[in-house]
Structures are given as C-alpha cells and as structure tokens.
C-alpha cells in the first residue's frame, strides 16, 4: 500500500519513517471507520481513537475529513494495483496475467471488503477520485491488452472498449464472489478460471 | 416503465388511470430530484413541486422519502429491463440478443443519466434494493445464457459467473460511454459491436 507520488495537495507527505507509520495507522483506521459508518457518520476523533494517536496528530497529515477520504481512495487504488501486480510472474503470457490479476483481486477484496463501500461512496463524496480510480485502472488494462496483442498472446487491435469491459467484469465478479460471497460459491481460483475462459474463447458455440 | 406487481409494501398501488398518471409524475419528478441532489439533500416538497401536485397528494402514494426512493429503484430496474427487451427481435440468436440489449441499454442510460447515480446511491440508502437490482439482472442474463446453450448459439455450461461478468461489462461500458461520454467516443452501436465480438470469440489470438 503506501502513498505514492500522486498524493493530493491537502495531504502532507511524511519525511520520517515514524511519520510514515503514523500516516499508515491513520489511513488503516480511516478505512475501518469509513467502511463501518460511511463518510457522513464518520468522525476524525473516531479515526484517531482507532489509530491510537492524539487528535492533534491528525492535522499533521491531513487538513480535513475530506482530505483523508481522498487520500484513502488513492491509497486503495494503489493497494488494488499492488495486489494484482504481485500475482504476476515474469513468464506469464498476457491472458494468464489477466487470470492471475483477477484471482489476486478477488482475494484482496475478500480480505478488504470495505474497499467497495469506500470507492463506491467516492462517487458521491469525491466524484473526481471516483472517476480517476476507474480511468487509471482502465488505462493500465488497456496497456496490458496492447502488450498482449504485440506479443501475439491476444488478438491485435484491442483498446479502450475491451479494457472497460474487462474492468467491469472484474469489479462485478468481486462484488458477487468477494463481497456478497456465499459458502456454496466457487472459490477465487474457479471464478478466475471461468472468467479467463470467457476471455480466451468467448461464450460462442464451440468451434472445434 | 410503470410499477409492477413487486411494488414495495409502503407504496400504495393506484386503482385509477388518473392515479397511475399522478404516481408516474411523482416517480419522474423523484428521478430528477434524487438525480440532481442525491437522497439526503432531496425533499418531498421539491418532488411534489417538480411533479406539479399538492404536497398532501404525495402521501396518497408513498409513506416517506425512503419509500419513494425504494419505489424509484424498482421502477428503474423495470425500465432497464423493458429498454433491453424492446430491442430484442424474435428471430435473433442468443449472441445477437446480447448485442441488441447492450446497445439499447447504452442508449437508455445516455437519455436517463440519473439512473446510475440513483442505483449507485441505493448501495447506501437502501442496500437491499441495490443488491436485488443486480441479482435480478444477473438471473435474467443467466437465463438467456442457458437458452443460448440449449439452442446451440452459445457454448453449453454457461452459468452465474458468466452472467455476472457480462453484467459488469455492460454496467461499466454504460458508465464510460453513456454517463462519461465524450464527443470523440465510438457510438452505442460500435461499443456494442466490439463488446459482442469479445463475447463471440474472446480476446485470445486469432484461431483461423
């Protein structure tokens, strides 16, 4: 996780290791607080209590509840990216990368269920963060599809439409199989296998 | 559109044609009010003003702001279903049906942009309506996939995973190309064509 260079302007980047740890505690506490109560009911004092830091310490890092919410959305975008990236091995072809990235995302979402509520609430609390979150992911997927076409592991000419289609698949499979998971459901590996089969060959009649 | 037999209990079904028209006016006004201001800022008096009916008339049909919001989500679910269904011709095969349904949905969303904001806000205002909306659509898609497998226009064995994948594709293509549309974007027919090609043959390398 961890803030990256795109941190919003109303967030102060800590200069020391101790500062980074305190900011991490505040972001993790904010994820629980916003996840449990939503933006409007959440309070800065509850966040600092959950983080085990003094109320005044909050303002060393963030200007407002809006600021930490915005930072948290950026932080969660980064966490989703890292979870997918860590699942990718150097020798995977482009289609296998999509399968591994989806399986990793499903596992990440199952262990970080508040991520859906917080990103989804950004549509209302901070529309620009919401849109940036999805546009950034779509661009990353479009880049992978372009590489896949170049290396011959995918057909050539895939672009933005296919990237948004793929992102939508992944988001809704996460909603159903990570957030609204049921005991009888297939596991992340099986969901990713079936979704990847759709990507590999579509859902048209068998052609062999 | 129009309320169907699944109207929530706190909504009174009108018995006369005039009553049905008044209820329709209230629902259309509520769509604009919730779409413009969101649930929390919206007021019953603004809804009746937009609808051109007396404040007291509201309570002939709905118990509360929550009740009309819930009725509106059900009404929009129904409208999405009808828009897709009207695009389907009797002689279409199962894959062509998916293409026509997506194109119709993209056109519907472009002309009813508030539908995204209202359905998405239901996640926070009325979580059960939100979940029911998507579960109902997924079941309908799963039914179409099963028919497609039976008639040989799709491969056999498609199920819930593919239904949620397809729904996610459609929702995110609508978000990108209907709600966040840009002048330079491909039109609904081209977006539906590319998405349908993904469904027909996947994104794997050409196999011919």
UniProtKB/TrEMBL annotation, chains A, B:
PROSITE patterns: HTH_TETR_1, HTH_TETR_2. The keyword Transcription regulation applies. It comes from Qipengyuania aurantiaca. Keywords: DNA-binding, Transcription, Transcription regulation. Pfam families: TetR_N (PF00440). Residues 43-62 bind DNA. SUPFAM superfamilies: Homeodomain-like, Tetracyclin repressor-like, C-terminal domain. This is TetR/AcrR family transcriptional regulator. Residues 20-80 form the HTH tetR-type domain. It comes from the Bacteria. InterPro entries: DNA-bd_HTH_TetR-type_CS, Homeodomain-like_sf, HTH-type_TetR-like_transc_reg, HTH_TetR, Tet_transcr_reg_TetR-rel_C_sf.
């Amino acid at each position: 996780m961890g803030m990256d260079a795109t941190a919003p302007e109303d967030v102060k980047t800590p200069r020391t290791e101790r500062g980074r740890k305190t900011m991490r505690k505040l972001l993790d506490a904010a994820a629980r607080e916003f996840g449990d109560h939503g933006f409007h009911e959440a309070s800065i004092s509850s966040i600092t209590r959950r983080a085990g830091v003094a109320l005044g310490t909050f303002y060393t890092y963030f200007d407002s509840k809006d600021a930490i919410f915005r930072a948290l959305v950026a932080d969660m975008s980064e966490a989703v990216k890292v979870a997918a990236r860590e699942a990718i091995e150097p020798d995977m072809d482009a289609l296998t990368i999509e399968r591994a990235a989806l399986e990793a995302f499903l596992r990440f979402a199952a262990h970080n269920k508040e991520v859906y509520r917080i990103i989804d609430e950004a549509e209302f609390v901070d529309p620009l963060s919401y849109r940036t979150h999805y546009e950034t992911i779509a661009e990353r997927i479009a880049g992978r599809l372009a590489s896949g076409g170049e290396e011959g592991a995918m057909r050539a000419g895939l672009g933005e439409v296919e990237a948004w289609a793929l992102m939508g698949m992944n988001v809704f499979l996460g909603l159903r199989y990570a957030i609204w998971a049921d005991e009888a459901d297939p596991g992340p590996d099986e969901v990713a296998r079936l979704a990847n089969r759709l990507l590999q060959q579509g859902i048209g009649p068998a052609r062999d």
